[in-house]
């Protein structure tokens, strides 16, 4: 007779978030911050989604490995994630690359970012490790993935997305049998293997892995002793288990958290300017694909103490208004018109300005008569009076970072170079 579980597996697990990546495809947005620290959705940072998933799943021990330009990320974690209490067997560790193993090396790869902190992990005595990427937007219950891991007897369970087969060429792809055991792991294949019984779809890695802790620690020590290894989960650790042990795929649809308003399983890699703009603007839809208003699965973040948003003036062509837009606290829309835009905290939009398809990061000042369309404006930028963006593609490309999709990324150094 099978023994019933007394408590959730998540209470005996540690979530380890890999948050050291730059995210160079986001261009100037990651000049001063790591990709996981990039703002998203009006209030949050990208990393808040992985961390919120862990917390909402019942995991109470979390570690975050940081490396590239980590100051703003560390500051955000200290401000917004400082409520864990050791007396409740909770912990939240920020783990910068600090040359703990060698006096000469930083984190050499994703596996090394865990290996260099083995002593910290083992001190907690957790049974399971949930390894997470810190740079994706999604809602997922890791408890369900832990349950599958234990029930299947796998040595590693890998979170996977079902994607159209020929769109999987940019992912690590799982070749699985009819029981979702992984036969082969192929990195960015030209001809991705199909899901059995579903020839048009493939299983792509989400960069989410579940291990028994002792097995993972032994594996990392073996990998660290191999001079030919690149110290990476996708390139070294996972292929080794696939070849010598048992690796099982966990389908995202089995543990994706959805409210009544979410039709599809939502996951986004907002790694390009176009993808970042689109995912933010999508939130302005009447019924967006991602429901950030679902109180049963909140996205935790640093909650700044700010006054409400304010809309002023009611004259013709000078009316503070917002249609199909998200406006955060401490914004003042002073005789400005917003349409399908998303404003982060502390934005000031002055009279006669118009914003359409604008993603505006915190503390931006928009001058009078500015007309901005399909833009991402970095934090703290001062938009001069009368600036027009989004009408002349050739001129826009000369002055700003214009993406393939026609979105203009605007930073203060770009503004400073303008001849007005």
Automatic annotation (TrEMBL):
It catalyses: alpha-D-glucose 1-phosphate + ATP + H(+) = ADP-alpha-D-glucose + diphosphate. GO terms for molecular function: nucleotidyltransferase activity. Pathway: Glycan biosynthesis; glycogen biosynthesis. Alpha-D-glucose 1-phosphate binds at residues 107, 172, 187-188, 205. Its EC number is 2.7.7.27. Transmembrane segments: none annotated. The keyword ATP-binding applies. Residues 307-410 form the Glucose-1-phosphate adenylyltransferase/Bifunctional protein GlmU-like C-terminal hexapeptide domain. The record marks 67, 106 as: Could play a key role in the communication between the regulatory and the substrate sites. Involved in the biosynthesis of ADP-glucose, a building block required for the elongation reactions to produce glycogen. Catalyzes the reaction between ATP and alpha-D-glucose 1-phosphate (G1P) to produce pyrophosphate and ADP-Glc. Homotetramer. PANTHER family: GLUCOSE-1-PHOSPHATE ADENYLYLTRANSFERASE, GLUCOSE-1-PHOSPHATE ADENYLYLTRANSFERASE-RELATED. This is Glucose-1-phosphate adenylyltransferase. The lineage of its organism: Bacteria, Pseudomonadati, Pseudomonadota, Alphaproteobacteria, Hyphomicrobiales. The gene is glgC.
